[in-house]
Design a protein that fits this description.
Blueprint: E1 6-8, E2 10-11, E3 21-25, H1 45-52, E4 67-75, E5 90-97, H2 105-110, H3 113-121, E6 124-130, E7 136-144, H4 146-149, E8 166-171, E9 174-180, E10 184-193, H5 201-210, E11 216-217, E12 222-223, E13 227-231, E14 236-238, E15 252-256, E16 267-273, E17 277-290, E18 313-317, E19 322-325, H6 330-333, E20 338-339, H7 340-344, E21 357-366, H8 367-372, E22 391-400, H9 411-414, E23 422-429, E24 437-440, E25 471-474, E26 477-482, E27 485-492, E28 499-506, E29 510-517, H10 518-525, E30 533-535
Parallel strand pairs: 2-20
Antiparallel strand pairs: 1-30, 3-29, 4-5, 5-6, 6-7, 7-12, 8-9, 9-10, 10-13, 10-14, 11-13, 15-16, 16-17, 17-18, 17-19, 21-22, 22-23, 23-24, 25-26, 27-28, 28-29
Length: 539
C-alpha cells in the first residue's frame, strides 16, 4: 500500500537460512585416490575429462573419477548396535558418481552428450557408519556397485542408471534403504561388522526365504574391509502411474503411532508431494503384490521401461492417499516471510516452480517448544485447522527455477533467472490424517563449506572449493550458497531432542551435515510479524 506506514521486507536467500552448528564435510576415504580428480587438474578440467572419456563407454567403471553427494542419515536401530563398533550411532548414505556440476557451466556446454550421459550412467552407493561427532568409523565406509551386482544396469539410453539417489529411514526400529529408481523402491538393511555376526542370522535368512524373500549380501567395490551390508529382501516399489497420481521420486517416509492399536507398530507413510498439494499415502513397507512383467511404466520423466524384477513388487498400501492443500489453511497459504524473487519477479513472473517436492522429512516440534522461543501459532478458536494441535511435523522442501515458462521471454529477461537454481523452505503439517499443511517458511539456501579443517568437523573436502564455481544467482545478484543446494535428510539428533541433523548436497559435487536447533525451525516458521516489515516515515 502506497499510503501504508509499513513495507514488506524481501529477504536474500542467504540471509534466511536457519543458524546451525557442527558443520561436517563428508568424504569417503574408501574411494581410491586414483578415482579422484587431482586438484592440479582443476584448471584444465576440460582436457582431463575429455581424456578420461575419449571413448564414452557405460561399461567402463574403472577409468573414471568419482564424487559423493546428497547424503542420507538414519539412526542405527538399537538392536543392531550389538553387532557393530561400540561407537556407531548413525548410518550415512551417499550417491557416488562421476556425474556432477562442480565446474562452471561452460564445461557442461563443451562436453558431448555421449560423454555427459556416460558419466551420468554410473551411480554407486556409498555407505558409512558415523559416531556421535559424525566422523566415519575406520573400516566401515564402503562403495557398492549396486545396480550391476543386482543385474539391474539398463541396456539403453547409454546405460541409463537403474538407481540414482539413496536415502535412509529408521522406522519401527528397522533400517530401510530408499532409492530413486523408475519410481521409489524400498528394502530393509542388515548391518554387521565382519567377525561380529549374529549367530541367529542364518536362521533368520532361512525364514525370509520361506516367506518368499531373498536376502542379498552386497559385495563391497571399494573399502568396507570390516563392513557387511545385506539387503533383507528384494525391492518393493511405491507405485503409481500418470502425471496426476505419482511424482516418481523423492518421496519422504515418516511414521506415527497407531491410533487404533497403541501396542502395534507405528503406521508408516510416504509423502509424495509437499506444496501446493500435500499428498500422503500410508504404506505397508514389507508387503507387496507382483505386477505382470509385460506391463510398462506409463509416466516417469524420460524413462519408459518394461517392468523388471527390480520394480515388479508393488508395495501394498492402506486406504487411499490423503491430499490437503496449502490454500486450505490461512497459515500455510502464504509463506512466513518473503524473499527477493517476489520483489524482482512479482506474480506470474516468479521463476520458481509452484510444485514443490519434499527433500527431507520429518522431525516433531511441539507447541510448547515453539512458545519457548517466543513464537506463537494460530489460535485454534480462530483457525479450525489448528484446533487440538499440540505438535507438528516439520520437513524441508525444495523447488527450482522453471525454465519451461521462460521460452517466450526476451533474452535479457531470461538471463536474470538462470535455470536449475534451487532453493529450500520449511513446511509443517498436522501429524494426523489428512496431514493438513499448517505453515511454510519463505525460501532459503544453506551455505558453502568453510575453509578451516577445525571449523568443518576435522575434514576438508578438496572438492568443496569447486562448489563456488556455480553460486546461486538471480537478477544479477550472487548469493553465498550453491546453485544446486539440495537438503536430502533431516532427523532428530540422538540423545538431544532439542536439535536436528540436516544433510545437504551442493552442486551435485559435495555433501555436508549441520546441526540445526529446533528453536531455529520454530523461528523461521513462526517469526514475529513485526520483524517482517520496514516502517517508513510518511511525512
Amino acid at each position: 500500500q502506497k499510503d501504508s506506514k509499513y513495507q514488506t521486507k524481501y529477504w536474500r536467500f542467504d540471509q534466511t537460512s536457519p543458524r546451525y552448528t557442527s558443520p561436517t564435510s563428508l568424504v569417503l576415504s574408501s574411494i581410491p585416490p586414483e578415482l579422484r580428480v587431482p586438484p592440479s587438474r582443476y584448471e584444465d578440467i576440460e582436457a582431463y575429462i575429455k581424456t578420461k572419456y575419449a571413448n564414452p563407454d557405460p561399461e567402463n567403471t574403472t577409468n573414471v573419477f568419482l564424487m559423493e553427494y546428497n547424503p542420507g542419515v538414519a539412526p542405527i536401530p538399537i538392536r543392531m548396535r550389538a553387532y557393530l563398533p561400540w561407537n556407531a550411532r548413525y548410518l550415512l548414505s551417499l550417491r557416488v558418481t562421476p556425474h556432477n556440476f562442480c565446474f562452471p557451466l561452460w564445461l557442461t556446454d563443451r562436453l558431448s552428450e555421449d560423454q555427459k550421459q556416460t558419466m551420468h550412467s554410473l551411480n554407486h552407493m556409498g555407505l558409512a557408519l558415523l559416531d556421535d561427532k559424525y566422523e566415519m568409523i575406520s573400516g566401515h565406509d564402503v562403495v557398492i556397485d549396486i545396480d550391476r551386482q543386482l543385474e539391474a544396469k539398463r541396456d539403453s539410453y547409454m546405460g541409463e542408471p537403474a538407481f540414482v539417489d539413496y536415502r535412509l529411514f529408521t522406522l519401527n526400529d528397522e533400517l530401510y534403504l530408499h532409492i530413486n529408481s523408475d519410481t521409489v523402491i524400498l528394502t530393509k538393511l542388515r548391518l554387521r561388522s565382519k567377525g561380529i555376526g549374529d549367530p541367529n542370522d542364518k536362521e533368520a535368512d532361512s525364514m525370509l526365504r520361506k516367506m518368499g524373500h531373498k536376502p542379498i549380501k552386497l559385495n563391497n567395490l571399494y573399502g568396507g574391509d570390516q563392513f557387511q551390508v545385506t539387503l533383507l529382501h528384494q525391492f518393493n516399489t511405491i507405485w503409481g502411474e500418470g502425471k496426476k497420481s505419482v511424482f516418481g521420486k523423492n518421496y519422504a517416509l515418516f511414521s506415527i503411532p497407531n491410533t487404533t492399536h497403541p501396542n502395534a507398530p507405528d503406521s508408516v507413510y510416504a509423502e509424495m508431494s509437499v506444496h501446493p498439494d500435500h499428498m500422503v499415502q500410508q504404506i505397508l513397507p514389507d508387503e507387496y503384490d507382483k505386477l505382470p512383467r509385460d506391463r510398462r511404466i506409463k509416466w516417469r520423466q524420460r524413462r519408459n521401461f518394461k517392468i523388471d524384477y527390480i520394480i515388479q513388487r508393488k508395495m501394498r498400501t492402506a486406504a487411499n492417499a490423503t491430499v490437503s492443500s496449502s490454500a486450505d489453511a490461512a497459515s500455510a497459504a502464504v509463506p512466513s516471510f518473503f524473499t527477493a524473487d517476489e520483489h524482482w519477479f512479482p506474480g506470474s513472473m516468479n521463476p520458481f516452480k509452484e510444485f514443490a517436492h519434499g527433500g527431507a522429512c520429518c522431525v516433531s516440534l511441539s507447541i510448547e517448544e515453539i512458545s519457548q522461543v517466543g513464537a506463537s501459532t494460530p489460535d485454534g478458536r480462530q483457525d479450525a485447522n489448528w484446533e487440538g494441535v499440540d505438535s507438528i511435523l516439520v520437513g524441508v522442501g525444495h523447488t527450482l527455477v522453471k525454465f519451461y515458462n521462460k521460452n517466450k521471454m526476451p533474452a535479457h529477461e531470461r538471463m536474470l533467472m538462470p535455470d536449475t537454481n534451487y532453493v529450500s523452505f520449511l513446511y509443517a503439517f498436522d501429524p494426523k490424517p489428512p496431514f493438513q499443511l499448517l505453515a511454510r517458511s519463505g525460501y532459503f539456501c544453506l551455505g558453502f563449506a568453510l575453509e578451516s579443517e577445525e571449523e568443518e568437523g576435522g575434514t576438508i573436502n578438496p572438492r568443496s572449493v569447486l562448489t563456488r564455481n556455480r553460486p546461486l544467482q538471480q537478477n544479477n545478484e550472487t548469493f553465498a550458497c550453491a546453485q544446486i543446494h539440495y537438503v536430502s535428510t533431516i532427523i532428530e539428533k540422538l540423545d538431544d531432542p532439542s536439535s536436528t541433523i540436516v544433510g545437504y548436497g551442493m552442486n551435485d559435487c559435495t555433501a555436508r551435515l549441520v546441526e540445526v536447533p529446533k528453536s531455529e525451525l520454530a523461528k523461521l516458521l513462526f517469526p514475529d510479524p513485526w520483524d517482517m516489515v520496514l516502517s517508513r516515515n510518511l511525512s
